[in-house]
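Input structure tokens:
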């Protein structure tokens, strides 16, 4: 009996060690999973806030262009993220094979850990992973009597890496041109837009939802979407707005 006592004691100690190890391991797994979940939640929350701020940004541009408001601003949280004007992209208008307008535009973007929110050609776009969703559509109109394109050129600061809250100020509005083209009645107008490859399907859905007369032209270039419509008139309004970013 005395010889088995130490063995029993050792077995009890080993049992306690095993239980303690399992408990510590479980706590570690829960901790790591919890931290990852918190990080994902924070990134998603920040992206939601940025999306709301970009909608305000878009509405501010509308106020300046349409209502002639002198100046507007919006705050964006830029902790572990950045805001910037984007690379130029072209919108081309062709009437019966003849190019009439080629306009280069810059957008505005929030770049965060959870994804990007972009203002482009009047649209507000949310990008996460390989997917993109158009939260607000651009101020374009398509019909068999008239096509209207209101385009805004953003000029100013290229990029700002923030550490808290960034103030984005829109100012110095200038109406560049307002051009009207008569097609002579029912001629084919082709609209070509440069896009990011992962945004192409989203833009295609947008054009196809606008009017039954819009027809897709080609799929040869993944960085362009191209649609045509028979219409009597094309009206293109171009404006420029200055973008200033500060903390």
């Amino acid at each position: 009996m005395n010889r088995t006592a130490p063995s029993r004691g050792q077995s009890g100690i080993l049992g306690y060690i095993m239980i303690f190890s399992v408990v510590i391991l479980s706590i570690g797994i829960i901790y790591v999973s919890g931290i990852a979940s918190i990080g994902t939640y924070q990134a998603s929350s920040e992206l939601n806030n940025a999306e709301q701020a970009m909608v305000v940004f878009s509405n501010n541009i509308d106020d300046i262009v349409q209502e002639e408001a002198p100046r507007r601003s919006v705050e964006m949280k830029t902790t572990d993220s950045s805001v910037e004007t984007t690379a130029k992209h072209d919108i081309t208008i062709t009437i019966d094979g003849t190019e009439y307008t080629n306009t280069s535009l810059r957008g505005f973007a929030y770049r965060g850990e959870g994804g990007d929110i972009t203002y482009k050609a009047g649209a507000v776009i949310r990008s996460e992973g390989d997917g993109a969703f158009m939260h607000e559509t651009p101020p374009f109109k398509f019909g068999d009597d008239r096509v209207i394109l209101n385009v805004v050129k953003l000029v100013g600061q290229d990029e700002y890496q923030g550490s808290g809250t960034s103030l984005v100020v829109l100012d110095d509005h200038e109406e560049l041109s307002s051009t009207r083209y008569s097609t002579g009645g029912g001629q084919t107008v082709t609209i070509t837009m440069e896009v990011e490859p992962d945004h192409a399907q989203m833009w295609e859905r947008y054009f196809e939802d606008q009017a039954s007369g819009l027809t897709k032209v080609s799929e040869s270039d993944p960085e362009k979407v191209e649609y045509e419509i028979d219409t009597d008139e094309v009206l293109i309004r171009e404006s420029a707005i200055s973008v200033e970013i500060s903390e």
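The radius of gyration is 27 Å. The helical segments are 4-66, 200-210.
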